Structure formats: structure tokens, C-alpha cells
Amino acid sequence: MSTPDTSGPSTPLQPVRVWDLPTRLFHWLLAATVVALVVTGHVGGNALYWHVVMGLAVGALLVFRVIWGLVGGRWSRFASFVRLPGTILRYLRGDHRPGDHFEVGHNPLGALSVLGLLSLLIVQVATGLVADDEIATKGPLNGWVSSALASKATGWHTEVGQWLLVALVVLHVAAIVVYRRKGINLVTPMVTGDKSLPADVPPSRDNLATRLLAAVLLAACAAGAMWVYRQGL
């Protein structure tokens, strides 16, 4: 989530590349696969095969995002939006200082939401990999853990974890709607990559080399997911 520009009406604005193409593709692919996970998980039966496949896809995307948070475009990096508690308190008090750039990428509260959602998804994927519904579906790494640990992971994955995930997704969507009603469009920049910002805001790198690097990283993550899948065959 992002905050509006607060630099004043006299500051000239121009389109600035905030979200590089790999980040945008990650965002929309993750949204689609998470929806597919929730649907297939509740349908059950033969749909559980696709639930496992979608879970591996989400896992690959999450690993990619963690790596991209270190080497990706400027505003996609964790260093640009993971704030210290003191900075978060300043943001809540409205104390915005030069160089904070709260209005560019994820603001401090939005960052907490993003980190919470990513962390929960990582836990959901990890528990799903070793889960066992004791009917027809086992996670591909179920054989790597004890039955006791698999049982605990299954309980979390199918009960507390899934409802926490649904709650965070609903909260995320609700925040987008609330910001939209305040006149702040968070969706369009994640489609186009650009926001209207002061000319001195540094853009994210989003050139051919960046995109090729992202493609290689994503391919490696997908290969890793395929390897995990084969462990359950």
C-alpha cells in the first residue's frame, strides 16, 4: 500500500517507474495462485491434486520474491520499505522527513501487511509440503518428517493457517478499497509500473537486463519446485 504525495501542489510531478515488471508479474501471479489454492482446498477430492500443484507454484513465487527483495528494482527491495519501529511511529504521527519517500512504494503500514502475508504464505506452503490428510493426499515431503510433526503441520495448514490467510487476503483487499475511496489508486501502478511523483524520486531499474535476470531466477525457482514435487512420486 502507498500514501499520496505530500510534497505540496507546487512540486512538479512526473511518471516514475516504481514497480518493475518482475514485481508486477509476481504480484498478479501470486494473487491468482492463492485464489486457486483456496478454491481447490475447499473443493477437495480430485481438486487436491491441483491444490498441491498450486502450492508448489506459490512456493516458487515466494522464493523468487525473497531473492528479488534483495536484487530487484529499488522500490521492490526490502531495504526500501522495511522500516524500523521509530520510523513507523514517525509515519503514524505524520512526521515525514525529506528522503523518507513514504509515498513511493509500500508505506510503513503497507509494508507490515505485505511482510505478514508473505510470511504466512511461506508457513502455509511449508506445512502443506509435509501435510497428510490421511485419505488420499500427502505433501511431497511428508516422508521427510515424523508422523507427529506431519500431524501438527496438517492441523495448522487446514485450520488456523488457512483462516488466517483468508483473513489477511480480505484485509489486503479491504485496504485497497479504502484507499481507493480516499482517491488513492493502488491498483493502476501495479499494472503500469508508474506513479506520478516528484521528479527527484529515483526510479526502479526495469530494463532488459533486469528482466532477463528475473526470468533466470524464476526458472531456477520453478526447477526447485519441480524437484520437490518429484520427491512425492
Q: Would you give an account of this structure?
A:
By secondary structure, the chain is mainly alpha-helical. It has helices at about 20-45, 45-70, 80, 85-95, 110-130, 145-180, 185-190, 210-230; strands at about 15, 195-200. Helix 2 crosses helix 5 and helix 2 runs antiparallel to helix 8 (about 210-230). The protein has a single domain (about 15-230), classed as Fumarate Reductase Cytochrome B subunit (Up-down Bundle). Mean pLDDT is about 90; it is low at about 1-10. The chain has a two-stranded antiparallel sheet. The protein is built from eight helices and two strands; from the N terminus they run E-H-H-H-H-H-H-H-E-H. The longest helix is centred in the last third of the chain and has 35 residues, at about 145-180.
Helices and strands, in order, run as EHHHHHHHEH
- The tally of structural domains comes to 1
Task: Output the strand order for the largest sheet.
Answer: 1-2
Helix content: 55-70%
**Total DSSP helices:** 8
